[in-house]
Each structure stands twice: as structure tokens, then as C-alpha cells.
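Saturday, quiet lab. Running sequence design on the C-alpha cells for the scaffold JK sent over.
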């Protein structure tokens, strides 16, 4: 039975929302385990789960056409290496921030990823920044500064905020490089990235002498929050289109904020609420303009 256009859009919408929600659990999961194990061990298990899960999915869904698409040429190897390094650094900076601040604050600041992607595209690939993107950048900067108001006085940007913004910068670089090889089959390519990152974290864990497998559930969490999330996003673009899928996925940090508040009962200050509203306005500004395009 052939699906109607309306039904196809609904499928894409559901997949995009699932992708954003699953990805929002990253910080929540890391916050739960960070006091009982090292950052490197958490990330090793989660990326291992994502990589293995995606390879399994790829093995069941591949066909001759996709096999040709999934091949990585020698010319693309440096790009893949850069993507893996950026993912490694970004994930480490995020989990280090999770150690010292609330999960809701880390999730909120993760909104900067979409802005960093636009800035890197402008500076490196000479893609113009649109007016709505400039407005969004200003709103997010304002929101970030407001987060640093405590008890009516302003304090300099915290190290934790810089860690998250730094992670978003690496993700911005990664997003732009990934776009250059976006023709690769999503499950296969993402599986390579996640598995490579897990190997690098395994090396670090072994060098530190901290290897143990007491939290195998993190492998499952990693498959859902990293692997299945990215795969759902890739599939949603086929049904909904890249622009609409990206708009929905960009609200993942907002879902993360809500989850952190519900699960950890974190204290919500007035400055946090004001900053959240400003950053949501920044995302809406991007969404409205992207829809017009």
C-alpha cells in the first residue's frame, strides 16, 4: 500500500521527535553514573553500544546500492579522522561539565551547537550567515551571560559553561565535515564513528588502569541515546526533509532540560528560566526562517 504524503510527513515527524528525545538522554545518563565511574569508562561503554548496535542494524538492512554508498575513499580518510577526534573531544568536554554543574544547565548550553555549526560554516567554508542566524547568535550569547547572574550580581563565565561551549565548537566542526561526506549510508558511517571513538576511550581507560565492566547497561543506553538517535534522525530526513528534521532535532537540548528537571528535581532559578526562554526564542527564530527557505 502506497503511503500518502500526509502519512509520510507524520512518520518523519515521529522519527525526528524520537531522535531528539533519545539524544536528550545523553547528559541525563552521564549525570547518573559520573560519581561512580570515570568519564572515559562511561563514554567507552556508551560509544561501544552505539557502534555495535549500528553495525548490527547495517548488516540486516544493507543492499548492493547502500554498500556502494558506504565505501570511504582514501581521500575521505582525513575527514573521518577529524570527525572522530572532534567527537572524542566534544563528548569529553561535555561529561567534564556534567561533573560540576546541573544536567539542566549543560543541556541548555548545548543549544550552542547549532550556532557553532553556522559560525564554522561561515569562517571555514565561506557560507553566508543569514540575518535570522545573527539574531539567534546574539540571543544565545545574551542567554549564556544571564546564566552567570547569581544573587543579583554578575560573575564571569564559569569554566563549566566554557566546557560546554567548547564541546559545541567541536560538534560544529564535526557537523560541517560530516556534511561533506553525507552520501555515506548513515548506520554504517555513524557506526564507524562511534566504534572508533569507543576504541580511543578504551585505550585511555587501559592506560589509566580503570577498565571494568560493572555497568554493562551503559552499552544499551549508548545504543539508544547515540546510535538509534542518529539513525532516527537520518531516516526522518528522508520522510520529512533535512530542514524540518534539523529544526526538530535542534530542540533536543530543551527536551534535555525538561528531563533533567523531572528526573533530578534540580533547582530552577529565575535567571535559568529567563535564559531558557531567550534560547528557545533563538531556536524559534531559526526555525521560522528555515521553514520559509
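Result came back. Writing it out in full:
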Amino acid at each position: 500500500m502506497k503511503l500518502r504524503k500526509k502519512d509520510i510527513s507524520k512518520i518523519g515527524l515521529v522519527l525526528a521527535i524520537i531522535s531528539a528525545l533519545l539524544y536528550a538522554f545523553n547528559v541525563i545518563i552521564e549525570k547518573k553514573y559520573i560519581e561512580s565511574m570515570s568519564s572515559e569508562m562511561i563514554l567507552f561503554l556508551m560509544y561501544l553500544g552505539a557502534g555495535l548496535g549500528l553495525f548490527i542494524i547495517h548488516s540486516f538492512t544493507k543492499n548492493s546500492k547502500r554498500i556502494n554508498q558506504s565505501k570511504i575513499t582514501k581521500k575521505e580518510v582525513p575527514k573521518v579522522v577529524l570527525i572522530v577526534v572532534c567527537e572524542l573531544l566534544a563528548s569529553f568536554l561535555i561529561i567534564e561539565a556534567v561533573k560540576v554543574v546541573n544536567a539542566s544547565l549543560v543541556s541548555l548550553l548545548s543549544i550552542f551547537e547549532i550556532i557553532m555549526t553556522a559560525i564554522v560554516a561561515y569562517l571555514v567554508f565561506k557560507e553566508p550567515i543569514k540575518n535570522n542566524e545573527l539574531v539567534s547568535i546574539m540571543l544565545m550569547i545574551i542567554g549564556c551571560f544571564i546564566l552567570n547572574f547569581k544573587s543579583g550580581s554578575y560573575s564571569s563565565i564559569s569554566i563549566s559553561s566554557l566546557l560546554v561551549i567548547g564541546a559545541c565548537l567541536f560538534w560544529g566542526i564535526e557537523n560541517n565535515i560530516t556534511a561533506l561526506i553525507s552520501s555515506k549510508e548513515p548506520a554504517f558511517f555513524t557506526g564507524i564513528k562511534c566504534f572508533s571513538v569507543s576504541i580511543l576511550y578504551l585505550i585511555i581507560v587501559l592506560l589509566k588502569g580503570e577498565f571494568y565492566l560493572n555497568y554493562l547497561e551503559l552499552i544499551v543506553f549508548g545504543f539508544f541515546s547515540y546510535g538509534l538517535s542518529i539513525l532516527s534522525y537520518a531516516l526522518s530526513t528522508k520522510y520529512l526533509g533535512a530542514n524540518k528534521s534539523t529544526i526538530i532535532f535542534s530542540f533536543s537540548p530543551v527536551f534535555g532540560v525538561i528531563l533533567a528537571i523531572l528526573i533530578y528535581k534540580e533547582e530552577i532559578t529565575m535567571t535559568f528560566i529567563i535564559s531558557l526562554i531567550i534560547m528557545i526564542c533563538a531556536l524559534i527564530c531559526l526555525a521560522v526562517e528555515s521553514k520559509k527557505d
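Notes for JK: The beta strands are 149-150, 153-154. The chain has 13 helices and two strands. Ask whether to fix the surface positions before the next round.
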